[in-house]
């Protein structure tokens, strides 16, 4: 089925204990699209400035990513982010953040994208996520991400968004903040009470917890990899593969969602193996399927 | 088969956000024995002072825990610990620690216990763990726990111990400290290189990682419970059920070890549901088996 993502396209500079990657391609919509494209055609909606050094058509060549929703603004500058990961690879410091084109008016969703059935609203202000969602005619499954600053400062908008989406994908700290609960199972229930039928809580190196409003739960560890070079994009790749698999199957039942989350977990483990998109561009669907099988074996008893 | 544990018997005072439990029964050997007794007969080795208000024969009545190795020293005082858990239930502050009888000479292992096949050396100085181990004739599977202060200050002794045991059961921070590695899979490999054939890394609310020297791995999340009243004894209960199940089956292959670790996970989830031993004394083996089945369903995809 059709899968649409709205999110950022950025120029990243990333420092980790394993090296530095300067001015590389990043952004939530880019990681999401690359990960999702292993499973389903993707429709990308995002904006860049004239300074963007990357040819996205080339980046996604052969990958069935429709760039009709990519807007290039000639008088704007592309979003930039620079960050440094600490030695534990969990914590990071933002060294520089230039919103640039992201601080302007949002992109318009092309008419040809408005019939999209699966939708991912990557992290941005909840108000903007709502505006983007309003442009989709009759989505089947809408997932969204959010972050601490929107929970703290735009909670009313976020609560409106939560009533409109099917699935919230957030990390552990965000779930605790949003629910005011330390226990993640209780936190998940409180988030479900706010509206979405599904919540997926990402725990980084400790995997994820998926809960739905019918009481289903799925607890999955992270794929145990020793190859961790750059965690940037792990969360958006996770979301990309998860939604990508749902869109591939056209189903949203809990059994399908479990497999989707497992694919998300595995694809994220490839993302973090290298800087920028290299961990994803160097693999095939077959590599992903093999690692999924390994993850299954590693967790079965 | 025969399962022996050496460890502490203590008088605990525990504060958590859910209440206070004053002067209750605690200690590694006590939690271990109670958990293990659901699976196998247990031989307990430990010392208390004349002041100990608990009748351990009554505590373990009907549970097949042999107290021939319990030494009561008339002129000594029992080990005491007081701690407060923070709101996240992960971090805790030690409010008071009185080693008392634990600072004296160690207990002797009774002749009738020296043929034990499965052995757990609960946390104490590695030198003492070695002395205790020397008294066992021909153990089949020896597991041990340790902690930060022995890693930092008694590393030579600990390395000697690691060459003598089959399995080290430690928590995440201890594994990182011992291996000087942040990545837990790399950390596990480094610990295996120090001697034990198996290492189990406990990650609290995020489950555990089990690795052996043959390259087998098992990644299991924690049981997702909302009932968390007092985490004291979770680690020793985990070890108790794990070793208890191995002793019950008499096997130590990786497939059996996986089930054992799953039992450890489930029994620990009962321990933390209430103060002191109440979480364990209020359940049956049937409750444990049911929760094991649930854990299996929650993690399968």
Task: Kindly describe this structure.
The structure is a homodimer of 301-residue chains. Chain A is α/β, with parallel strands linked by helices. In chain A, the strands form 2 sheets. A 9-stranded mixed β-sheet of chain A has the order 5-4-1-8-9-10-11-12-13, sandwiched between helices. In chain A, strands 3-2-6-7 form a 4-stranded mixed β-sheet. The mean pLDDT of chain A is 96. In chain A, 36% of the residues lie in helices and 26% in strands. Chain A contains 11 helices and 13 strands. The two termini of chain A are 35 Å apart. The first copy, chain A, has one domain: UDP-N-acetylmuramoyl-L-alanine:D-glutamate ligase (3-Layer(aba) Sandwich). Chain A binds chain B through residues 87-89, 182-186, 203, 205-207, 209, 217-222, 224-226, 228, 258-259, 261-262, 296, 298-301, and chain B through 87-89, 182-186, 203, 205-207, 209, 217-222, 224-226, 228, 258-259, 261-262, 296, 298-301.
List keywords for this structure.
homodimer, 301 residues, alpha/beta, UDP-N-acetylmuramoyl-L-alanine:D-glutamate ligase, 9-stranded mixed sheet, 4-stranded mixed sheet, 11 helices
Tally of distinct domains of chain A: 1
> Biggest interface, which chains?
A-B, 32 and 32 residues
* N→C terminal distance of chain A: 35 Å
CATH topology of chain A: UDP-N-acetylmuramoyl-L-alanine:D-glutamate ligase
Shape of chain A: globular
Strand content of chain A: 25-35%
Q: What top-tier CATH class of chain A fits best? A: Alpha Beta
Helix content of chain A: 25-40%
Roughly what is the average pLDDT of chain A, rounded to an integer?
A: 96
CATH superfamily of chain A: Ribokinase
Structural class of chain A: alpha/beta
**Main sheet specs of chain A:** 9 strands, mixed
CATH architectural label of chain A: 3-Layer(aba) Sandwich
Parts with pLDDT < 50 across at least 5 consecutive residues of chain A: none
What's the SSE pattern of chain A? EEEHEHEEEEHEHHEHHEEEHHHH
Placed side by side, the strands forming the largest sheet of chain A appear as 5-4-1-8-9-10-11-12-13
Gyration radius of chain A, rounded:
18 Å
Number of helices of chain A: 11
What's the assembly state of these chains? homodimer
Number of strands of chain A: 13
